[in-house]
Amino acid sequence: MSTSSSKAEEATSKPSVDEVVEAAKQRDPDQPEFFQAVDEVVASVKPLLKERPELVDVLARMLEPERVLHFRVAWQDDDGRTEINRGFRVVMNTACGPGKGGLRFHPSVDLSTLKFLAFEQTFKNALTGLPLGAAKGGSDFNPRGRSDDEVMRFCQAFMSALYTEIGPDTDVPAGDIGVGAREIGFLYGQYKRLTRRADGAMTGKGSNWGGSLVRPEATGYGLVYFARHIVADADESFDGAKCLVSGSGNVALHAAAKLISLGAKVVTLSDSSGVIHEPDGLTEDGLAFITELKTVRRGRIKEYTEEFSESAEYVEGGKPWQFAGDYAFPCATQNELDGDDAAALVDAGVRGVFEGANMPCTAEAIEAIKSGSLMYSPGKASNAGGVGVSGLEMAQNAGHVFWDEEEVDSKLQSIMEDIYTAAKDTADRFDLGGDLQAGANIAGFERVADAMVAQGVW
Ligand SMILES: NC(=O)C1=CN([C@@H]2O[C@H](COP(=O)(O)OP(=O)(O)OC[C@H]3O[C@@H](n4cnc5c(N)ncnc54)[C@H](O)[C@@H]3O)[C@@H](O)[C@H]2O)C=CC1
Ligand SMILES: O=C(O)CCC(=O)C(=O)O
User: What keywords are assigned to this protein (predicted)?
Assistant: First the structure.
């Protein structure tokens, strides 16, 4: 081969998948959470990229957000002091529809965390089958310990910087960690005050001011609907099963409620301080106590053992994964279940791990879960019910209609079943031994990639 032709070949040869990922890592060496999420997806989609090598270019574009907004949020606390926080919105991919994804208010929020969440959201939203793109945003502001007035002033300042960038056909934020009904109310109120538009540019709104029924419950209920398919395929059921649930926020509380309604014994819940273990399972009254404790009094989970139950124990700094059970539902935060925790679950005879949080299992944990032959569902599939019902909220807002609970819940069940089927069928298509993680990643990736190809290079 002549030197000139090999030069021409070099000039036109495309980078490999690994080179594409390596180049992205070199651009942002300080974003470990983002690249943890990227590595997980890329490992799964390699069989597809082998079949369709032209999609490697598309992957390269997916690794760069479409837009990143970084803004100052200055506000006054109750003592009249000026406080400064950082605000962000990462619009990752609008190939399938407007930006869509939650806002997180937590001291750990930075660009790496938001890019990982927005990247996960890209494939999750595609899996719902709805016309949704993907975004995520938030702030390092911590609502814990702040008065309602402080939270309102913070939310108003945050939205004052963001309102020009969002809209029902542009980007539609919702809640996530630290952003619940109270925060959505303050944020949407400020959006309307500034734009004079009640156009549903946020989801998770109250059901008497433009929100959808079942949106508060949707992520937790959807998780259980999804897991129920996996468990049923193994000829098992949740009736009488001991379930280890982590967290005590929106996702955990509604997953626990649905599990209890199916006859399961929810033996743990937790917060960032520790875990409670109720050996015979939480009663509906016990769960109602914790729901009030967490959403109204904004207290700590240990108060359940101090004020409500004599049979429960509280372990400061503990995690649910130290207890025995049949199934585990990590519903708190990223990387809350590591390799050692997963090994403990395998040793304790746990038979399935179903993710409610985004990326709650580390890579080592997933490896241990799979080599222990446990059932496993990745968050981007099993927690997609929240954004699914957000999509239904957008549809109701656009049509100026309001659906009853039965209608929304039955649509949610269909969405979860369709995602399960897509993940399973895609795993079969690539002969992946029923690996739902790989199946979900490939199915979500392929939908977004096809949409990007159809819309040209930009
Ligand atoms: N809210 C939603 O609709 C959706 C949420 N998710 C994900 O679910 C997870 C939980 O979110 P939400 O319930 O909405 O938030 P939340 O703010 O209502 O609850 C978060 C819970 O996690 C606990 N937590 C936080 N850090 C912890 C730690 N290091 N160890 C133990 N517990 C910790 C908190 O104490 C709280 O109970 C997050 O990963 C979120 O991204 C995913 C899909 C939708
Ligand atoms: O409903 C939404 O848009 C937010 C859901 C979300 O943030 C998530 O799926 O992680």
Answer: NAD, Nucleotide-binding, Oxidoreductase
DSSP annotation of 141 reads -
Residue 224 CB neighbour total at 10 angstroms: 26
Confirm whether 136 is a catalytic residue: yes
Tell me the β-bridge partners of 173.
Answer: 101
Q: Which residues contact 450 (CB under 8 A, 6 or more apart)?
A: none
Fold of 217-382: Rossmann fold (3.40.50)
CA of 72 to the centre of ligand 2 (A): 23
Length of the chain (residues): 458
Q: How far is the CA of 271 from the centre of ligand 1 (A)?
A: 9
Beta bridge partners of 126: none
**174 close to ligand 2 (CB < 6 Angstrom):** yes
Nearest ligand (C-alpha, residue 393): 2
Q: Report pLDDT digits (tens) over 232-246.
A: 999 999 999 999 999
Structure tokens at 144: 């814990």
CATH of domain 67-197: 3.40.50.10860
- Ligand 2 within 6 A of 139 CB? no
Q: How far apart are the first and last CA of the chain?
A: 35
pTM of the full predicted structure?
A: 0.96
In angstroms, the CA 278 to CA 268 distance is 6
pLDDT 10s digits, 363-410:
999 999 999 999 999 999 999 999 999 999 999 999 999 999 999 999
Catalytic residue among 115, 136, 258, 411: 136
Q: Write the ipTM.
A: 0.98
**Which residue, chain included where needed, has tokens 């944020």?**
187
Q: Could you give the CA distance from residue 350 to residue 369 in angstroms, rounded to a whole number?
A: 10
